[in-house]
Specification:
Elements (H helix, E strand, L loop, with lengths): L1 E7 H11 L1 H4 L5 H6 L3 H18 L12 E5 L5 E5 L1 H7 L1 E11 L2 E10 L5
Antiparallel strand pairs: 1-5, 2-3, 4-5
Helix pairs in contact: 1-4
Length: about 120
Amino acid sequence: MIGIDLIKTDRMKRLIERFGDRGLQKFLSENEISLIKNHRNAAGFWAAKEACAKALGCGIGSDCGFHDIILSKTPKGSPIISLSEEVKQRFGVTSLSVSITHDGEYAIAVVALESYLLIS
């Protein structure tokens, strides 16, 4: 399955200006927040988590929350995506990959996943 999401980076800029790290904590862990350099990075992480939930076919909610989707980076700065064990098992996910890009005022993310279960 594939999920994609697009977000205006200004949306994240306003969230950070208004709430700071407290706003980021709504959808990011402390480890993820430590990777954020600016509002564009934060917007990319938001898009990646939304794209992942779309690939799972459930959206963000009771079956998969923002904190069930875990983002990190390789030593060269490429994004890595993983899931909590509970969500990974619930959806039978065997493989996940993510790509995040920025263009002008937008951040875009695509997530591809493989599952041994039929996701509906």
